[in-house]
């Protein structure tokens, strides 16, 4: 093929893609524009899907609600865009557990997140199993959980609460989402590298590495929406968002290399020998492992763990505060639950109360509040799987080898048929057994926020511990008010982050 015809083959679909995406953005103030996908000759459902992209979450929810929880779709013939989208618990049980071997993450998922190549999130089969077993050894050891808990407590006491007290005393409004992302970046880096980068501080230092992680998730999302040949062509040409991603990868790689270097220096200064098997962070368990001798693999693995912690909890916490700020009755119940613990404690400097992670373990209503947030606002709002051999879903839908399966967690949390008439209300009580303060057992095929089956999230209890400690401290010490006039909506990303942040004001509560 000549250069001109190659350019045409690449640029015509790219132009069409960008045009449809742009027209979708122009319609972003018109939710009524959502329509059931139309199948076009030659283009399949791609135009309809792109035209509704601005409203992706709501659109997927409407389509799934209107089609009985399941939907078969496709893009242009030959573009490898045939897909099945579902939020049906029976199908989820089949995909994630019963016939799990037929639904790996697949090569396309691994290519989309090439920055984590070889990391747990992107691999399948025997290799995945071996690496999962290794990480279980790390994450379940008491030295790790104790250390994470202690750092979480200290971070809240020494950094978060003083910063929030300053915001309250000066009456400054600020972006709670940005603050939570900074907090979780520091806490996750401490768990992964044993180094706290100090992003959560009053002078708000630049957070290039954190912004780069957001870019990975935003461009990852767009890669899911277009034929693989198109984004690969853009990567090859180094144009548009692929160029932005390329820069983001460089920033993240630099962050990992610098942070490993910083950790070595810190340990040398406190007298540790690098060859000595001192465990204190995730890196210690990987750096001398011959399986991870390859620098690229080690770097990808560490980035994977940063994403596992920062992205998920940092995305969930702002939604918790958003919901609590609108539900003072729920805040009162949480404070009542905390009250017996607080009555035995002495406040720290500036009269702030900090709860030990251990003390919040038994708080059932607080856990129900976290689950209720994750039901409506799951940070990983969409899962992707690939079909190995032709199969029939419990719902009767056929899927074929090579198809992509998308599981919409966002839609699943909002389905009346699954959660009842009040499915859109924020109500932690739905997680409690009637007339008791015990948690209901809700199966993971229906509440998928922490995944289900053999690949269930390995950090669930650590995440709950960290979120409880943070939410308890913020809600006990402050009233959180939303600043009026802001528009809260999810951004287009693999993460359910808020597009415009969450602008709040705080008032210090009297002891
Ligand atoms: C609100 C907090 C969290 C949520 C909602 C969450 C959710 C999830 C989800 C949905 C998956 C499946 C991802 C996929 O298949 O693509 C997953 C996997 C995983 N999570 Fe979490 N996660 C959270 C926190 C954490 C934390 C704090 C850690 C680490 C300490 C962690 C470690 C992992 C690991 C290692 C996997 C990979 C499991 C595998 O593929 O075998 N997660 N998590």
Short synopsis of the structure:
Strand 5 and strand 6 (398-399) form a beta hairpin. The chain is of the alpha+beta class and 511 residues long.
Rg (CA only): 23 Å
What is the level-2 CATH architecture name? Orthogonal Bundle
Mean pLDDT score: 90
Number of strands: 9
Low-confidence stretches: 26-34, 274-278
Attached small molecules? protoporphyrin IX containing FE
Shape: globular
Distance between the termini: 75 Å
Q: Tally the helices.
A: 19
Number of individual domains: 1
Main sheet attributes: strand count, strand direction, barrel closure: 4 strands, mixed
Order of strands, widest sheet: 1-2-7-4
Q: Class, according to the CATH hierarchy?
A: Mainly Alpha
What would the CATH topology be?
A: Cytochrome p450
Provide a descriptive summary of the structure in words.
The chain is 53% helix and 7% strand. It has helices at residues 3-26, 46-51, 56-66, 89-98, 107-112, 125-139, 142-170, 176-193, 208-225, 228-237, 240-269, 282-286, 295-325, 328-342, 357-360, 364-376, 409-412, 416-419, 460-477; strands spanning 70-73, 83-86, 174-175, 382-386, 391-392, 398-399, 404-408, 478-482, 503-508. β5 (391-392) and β6 form a beta hairpin. α7 runs antiparallel to α8. The radius of gyration is 23 Å and the shape is globular. The termini are far apart. The model is unreliable at 26-34 and 274-278 (pLDDT under 50). Bound molecules: protoporphyrin IX containing FE.
